[in-house]
Design a protein that fits this description.
Chain lengths: 307, 368, 248
């Protein structure tokens, strides 16, 4: 595997007068060519700091990193020629039209819109009908598409997308991920961060990140297999009471609501279903339902957070 | 080159589409000049004047009557000695004193030459100027009426003395002052705000990640404001010539060239501010406090620098506006050439190079 | 009257010129209900919510919130609701206590009551030690929970939550929802918008707006059954994909 992004023991701290915030606590990973690599974690996990370090706009306190074989500190100019970056808030000029935004970003990256149009055609054609509209008047989903077009217009080899789907509705999010998969086919390496755990399954590999540390790096499938204990979904009529009782019970390791069900892990090994049934009976719950399920990424994340 | 052009065009869109700010930028100097213009043409009517008549002959009495009859003047006091002049002004309400020395008519009839002295309170320079002009006109009329049919004309010499503000600092000071202020404000404040805005919006991050060189970013950011400043300089000069009657005595092109130099000085100050400011508010306040106020205080157009305590005089030397102000006054008002202002120009140019140098060098190639 | 209706809307409409942002929506929300208000960006959620909060006058239709009319009694409405959004909630440069004090004061709580509430609230959130810390210094998840607790500090009839859990880690997100359940248990109606579809499943009933109209309104269970879907995500995608409107 050709390695396009290498991160080695990167540390970044933000110091204020009183406190020291550790944004990245010595993390390491690498990403291969044409891979979609997801950094999955909540706000404040350190995702943005990492992206800024890799796109050369921020210096790490220690550790080494390289993009496309270039060192992010010494050879930052070379990196700036070959990466595309979409920062957290879609950084577009609100008072410029769609077309003007695209032209501007093409110009500063020294790119020819006509020549590279092929790459953004799928995405840009969806917003082209609104090309004379000011970017500030676009919906979240359209801003996101425009920002992606702007980040792609110079045919970057590595694309950094920092929370591209935040605040965007489920439909636009789905379309966005379909676009990313088409870009991957072009051989573009994509690093994407998100706080939506369900998006992890759309990546080739993911790093679950929390408080500046990586909890796990694996394929989405692999992450789920790391969850070794049996997981149960339970349901009854009085869900709120069930939640409180289960969470407070000494036999229960964890209990979290998940949509219509509560996901439960027990401390005991062995006859889990029996233990759960007994608990449900004791509480006199009606229409009780107990299912054995496979964990999803969010279950895994929470289990890793509690370690 | 194309990169730069597109960048400049983008900046221009920002300025052009924010009509309110553009209006203020272009309108502010106009409003300042016009407001001052109004203050200038404030009509002088029934001004209180005093007369010191040491002759008391028919000629002086006739002249005093003529002056008193005009709608501009109201003779309220007759004083009797030179010593009283000062006292009359100190009381405050008298604007001018007309002085006839002993033997006015005798002089006029026998030597054909006589003298009138007009002493005005020039702490309000415009009024003083207007009053002495009107009084001179009345005296000239009188002289003309005497001269009808005379072969040897009588000549009354009007001697004007301005008290308290002998150089009549007024519009002549105001125009160069406004120019310095406006350029400082437009260039420094607007450039710093426009750069900091990109930081706030997050667009600076993408620009930084692009291969664009910092030098070009800086140039592209400043060119549109250079243009706006030129518009301002021209509008101020036009207004001052046609509305305020402050002529451009010296070379216009020299004046423009010096103004461009000062514009670049202000732009580099703006860049310097944007290097440190994180929010648009900070940028604005920093510009206000560190540029606007010193320009107002130390350039010399509100308060004469010569009268300040020595430490402040020393400080005033580092305020670029002071040098620009001296240059504009020399070229525009006094009509001096480059030979007389090369020293100031050199100082200003040196400051500009220094500021531009450190602001480009300090331009962050990374986020803080 | 089976149950208290806390919100009723009939043909509620908002036009901006030719553009119909909210197109004659009708629904009712009961006391203590957790009502999920879903829709794609630009479907009209925000506009509808603003009308219900008394921040924007409807163009036509009727609605009452907490028993007050949205045309004439907006001031009374504002007194009986709480509001929290991801973007605007707390003052970062005030301490936790100062924030509670401020919002309590705005809603006219007595000093004694504010004091009592402050103690209670800090205890509930396990934040006794952080009472005098600046909100800025708290982790995002804590801020969100605090913001919610403050939004209901005056025991409003209804609390409006606009994407309250964006970017929060999954455990905090669940803690947040247990706060919502507790509020609902106390009889406070919760009106919530979210982009997390699993959160939609926590709601008692869910409405989905498409192009300014309410396209679906039912319990998550029945919606899933009706659309033969395994999750609310699927239901939402199916409905929202029909949208023709793109702008906001």
């Amino acid at each position: 595997m050709e390695e396009r992004v290498v991160v080695e023991k990167i540390v970044k701290k933000y110091k204020t007068k009183k406190t020291e915030l550790i944004a990245l606590n010595g993390i390491s990973f690498s990403v291969g060519r044409g891979e979609i690599f997801g950094l999955i974690g909540p706000d404040g996990a350190g995702k943005t700091s990492l992206f800024r370090i890799l796109t050369t706009v921020l210096l790490a306190d220690s550790g080494k990193s390289s993009v496309n074989g270039y060192d992010t500190v010494r050879e930052y100019k070379k990196i700036r020629q070959c990466v595309g970056y979409m920062p957290g808030r879609f950084s577009l000029y609100q008072d410029l039209t769609v077309q003007e935004n695209l032209e501007f970003f093409a110009a500063i990256f020294d790119a020819d819109i006509k020549k590279n149009y092929r790459l953004i055609k799928d995405i840009y054609s969806q917003i082209e009908p609104f090309k004379d509209r000011k970017a500030g008047q676009l919906s979240g989903g359209m801003k996101q598409k425009l920002a992606l077009s702007c980040a792609l217009i110079h045919e970057p080899e590595v694309l950094f997308l920092d929370e591209p789907t935040t605040g965007v509705d489920a439909v636009s999010r789905k379309e966005f991920w379909e676009m990313l998969h088409r870009l991957k086919e072009e051989g573009i390496t994509i690093l994407v961060s998100t706080s939506y755990m369900d998006e992890a399954s759309l990546c080739d590999r993911v790093a679950l990140i929390q408080k500046g540390e990586i909890l796990s790096i694996n394929t989405p499938e692999g992450v789920r297999e790391e969850f070794r204990r049996p997981l149960w979904a339970v349901k009854a009529t009085e869900m709120f009471r069930l939640m409180n009782e289960l969470a407070g019970d000494p036999a229960v390791a964890s209990c979290y609501p998940f949509g219509q069900y509560h996901h439960v892990v027990l401390k005991t090994a062995g006859d889990d279903r029996g233990v759960l049934e007994a608990l449900m009976k004791k509480g006199r719950y009606e229409q009780a339902e107990i299912l054995s399920i496979k964990p999803n990424i969010e279950d895994c994340f929470m289990a890793l957070m509690n370690k | 080159m194309k990169q730069l052009l597109i960048f400049v065009r983008k900046e221009w869109y920002h300025i052009w589409r924010d009509r309110r700010t553009l209006f203020i930028l272009i309108g502010m100097p106009v409003v300042q000049i016009v407001l001052y213009g109004f203050a200038l043409t404030n009509e002088v009517k029934n001004s209180r004047i005093a007369v010191l008549d040491e002759s008391r002959d028919p000629a002086t009495i006739k002249l005093i009557q003529e002056i008193g009859a005009s709608r501009y003047f109201n003779v309220v006091r007759l004083i009797h000695s030179q010593k009283d002049i000062e006292a009359v002004f100190r009381e405050g309400r008298t604007r001018m004193v007309v002085v006839f020395l002993r033997g006015f008519q005798d002089d006029l009839l026998h030597t054909n030459h006589a003298q009138v002295q007009l002493i005005a309170d020039a702490s309000d320079p415009n009024t003083a100027n207007t009053l002495t002009n009107y009084a001179s006109a009345i005296i000239a009329d009188y002289q003309q009426s005497l001269n009808q049919g005379q072969t040897l004309p009588y000549q009354i010499k009007t001697q004007i003395r301005m008290l308290y503000n002998p150089e009549l600092k007024g519009a002549y000071n105001f125009v160069p002052g406004v120019m310095a202020l406006v350029l400082m404000l437009v260039c420094a404040m607007m450039t710093s705000i426009s750069i900091v805005k990109e930081k706030e919006m997050g667009t600076m991050e993408v620009i930084l990640v692009s291969p664009l060189k910092p030098f070009r970013i800086v140039i592209a950011k400043t060119i549109p404001y250079l243009f706006v400043s030129m518009v301002n300089i021209v509008s101020i000069l036009l207004l001052s010539v046609y509305a305020l009657d402050v002529p451009i005595v010296g070379n216009v092109w020299l004046l423009m060239a010096e103004s461009i130099l000062f514009t670049i000085t202000s732009l580099s100050l703006g860049l310097l501010i944007s290097n440190t400011a994180k929010t648009q508010q900070t940028a604005m306040f920093t510009s206000m406090m560190s540029l606007f106020l010193p320009t107002l205080l130390f350039s010399g157009f509100l308060f004469p620098v010569e009268n300040m305590p020595v430490p402040l005089q020393v400080i005033s030397n580092v305020v670029p506006a002071k040098w620009y102000y001296i240059i504009v006054k020399s070229v525009m008002i006094k009509g001096l050439g480059f030979a007389s202002v090369w020293k100031e120009t050199l100082i200003l140019a040196g400051m500009t190079l220094f500021l531009l140098g450190i602001s480009i060098k300090n331009f962050k190639i990374r986020l803080a | 009257m089976e149950k208290d209706k806390v919100i009723t809307a009939k043909g509620l409409t908002k036009r901006f010129g030719d553009f119909i942002a909210v197109d004659a929506i009708s629904f009712e929300v009961e006391k203590g209900e957790i009502f999920g208000f879903l829709g794609a960006n630009g479907a009209g959620k925000t506009t509808a919510m603003r009308m219900l909060c008394g921040l924007s006058l409807p163009s036509s239709g009727e609605a009452s919130v907490a028993g007050y009319d949205v045309y004439r009694q907006t001031e009374l409405i504002k007194r009986s609701i709480g509001y929290m959004s991801q973007k605007f909630s707390l003052y970062e440069d005030l301490t936790v206590r100062e924030n509670i004090r401020f919002y309590g004061g705005i809603y006219g709580l007595s000093d004694a009551r504010i004091k009592e509430k402050t103690g209670l609230l800090l205890q509930q959130l396990h934040m006794e030690e952080q009472g005098n810390s600046l909100v800025r210094s708290l982790p995002l998840g804590w801020k969100q929970k605090l913001a919610f607790s403050i939004a209901i500090v005056h025991d409003p009839a209804i609390v409006f939550l606009d994407e309250p859990t964006g970017g929060v880690d999954p455990i905090t997100r669940r803690e947040f929802w247990s706060l919502i359940y507790a509020a609902s248990d106390r009889g406070i109606t919760v009106f919530v918008t979210t982009h997390y579809m699993d959160e939609a499943e926590y709601c008692h009933r869910v409405s989905i707006m498409v192009d300014g109209r309410i396209d679906a309104l039912d319990t998550p269970e029945r919606l899933m059954k009706e659309h033969d879907a395994a999750s609310m995500d699927e239901v939402f995608l199916r409905l929202a994909r029909k949208a023709t409107r793109t702008g906001e």
